[in-house]
Design goal:
Blueprint lengths: L10 H7 L4 H17 L8 H27 L32 H11 L5 H10 L3 E2 L2 E2 L3 H20 L12
Antiparallel strand pairs: 1-2
Helix pairs in contact: 2-3, 4-5
Amino acid sequence: MTMRSSFVFYKSWHDAIKSFPADVQGEIYTVIMEYGLYGSEPHNMGKITSAIFALVRPQMDANQARYENGCKGAEFGRRGGRPKNPKKTPDENGDAYGHEYEKPSLCEVDEYCRERNNGIAAVEFFDFYESKGWMVGRNPMRDWRAAVRSWESKRKKEQGADNEPAQLNPVNYHA
């Protein structure tokens, strides 16, 4: 134990010690203070002092260890713990996860839409994502071709809903 300017002294210790005669109280307090402040091992204690110190010492050692570990961990924050991971920020040509992304040209989008024969206006698609900075929600776009396919499937669903005849619920008047 190293020398400290303070240590924890519990009320329950005082409550137990105050029932002894004054001379024994003084001996117990002295032993606890010497051990708590200077780490010196007590010698030539009476039986009562020895018994009380045997009960108090494990808690004093645990408090000291907690204090020393807290000092070691202070470089990682007031409460200890591992260092925080740095925030990943998207760079100009990729996203926060290190994926490389290159913005397509209008010609590439048009060629891909014609190749898929999906009927999507490449200019509309390009302008839409250009206005959003090629972001999907709060995240940078990872694959523009996947976004085209997504537009394609939405369009098919919309067209499918328009082409289906309205379902009439027959009314039973004889009920």
